[in-house]
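Re: that chain you flagged

S.,

Sorry for the slow reply, it's been a week of failed gels. I finally had a moment to sit down with the sequence you sent. For the record, here it is as I used it:
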Amino acid sequence: MDKFGIIAYASNNIGDEIQTLAQMRFLPQVDYECVRERIKDFKSDNNEKVKLIMNAWYMFNQSFFPPPETITPLLISMHFTDKMIKNYFNKPEIRKWLIKNGPVGARDVFTYTRLQEIEIPSYFSGCLTLSLLPNEKLKANKNHKYALAVNLTEEEVNILKNKTNLPVYNFGKMLFGMSMENRLRLAKCVLSLYHNAEVVVTRNLHTSLPCLAFGTPVLLLTTGKDGTPLVNRFDGLHHLCNNMTHEEFIYDLKHYNIDNPPPNPHIYKEMATKLVTTCSEFTGYDSKKSPLEDDFEPLFELISLMQLDKHQIQRNLYYANTEQLFRALVDKKYSLNSKYRIINDNQINIIK
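Prediction finished late last night. Pasting the structure tokens below so you have them in one place:
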């Protein structure tokens, strides 16, 4: 019987766990967590083979790439940093591994182009979060209308509030030190906010692309507040959404009616279909289920998380800037409990 793993993280980006939730649609069961930043050290029981969908951003600790031979990978929806490609992809072991397990499905055009330049077989796959499924029962039963602002400046949030009659809720990055199981639960709470919103305005890919998949109207800002275009990982993806620059949002929002937002473009659907086909053929499984169950209640889930992880949440308030966060990530006391571990039955029930 095949064994399956999920990518686990110790980052401050809830988008990482959203990537993992997208994987889980295609997994009949979860047997292992494979920690991204220590993936080279992964060990399975008796060196058994573990299938792993490797959609993710790679990676802070480049010296721990590539994975060991015990991992049978599906290289799809991958983003590699420019630094990683320049400094590490000239190593024979990495080139050999990528070519052997390729072609590499690049999440963005930048990654695809850079891989082509160094003659690594690759193609533009798009992001696996486009394969997330909505829960139509939850959408039909929602009884609270709101607009959601994700990672916007104070000025942008005020503009949004002045342009809508909807209540506007705003949140940005999340710092947390929870276990992987509870990070996934928190990610589901975040996804439910995207899922049930009337409209979402953001400059985050891990917000805008799930909104497309859920059918939630979304407006993507493609520049920073200083007018600088967003980083290269947006290449080939921003056009999937209705989008505008920071300046257009501030000075010319008349072209996007927040209270009656235009429907999302449908061009993402062909990309999503190909992603589903590739992943389901790799694992032999497709649950065809939304990550949000019919009875999912994010408020109760959050209250439960606060009870289970109150010390971690208190710790998040302490680790409130980048320097402190990275100190926490390299300190075993605040990072994941181990470099790799087998998931027990109780944990599987939590994260399904």
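What I noticed first: The first helix runs from residue 14 to 24.

Talk soon,
D.
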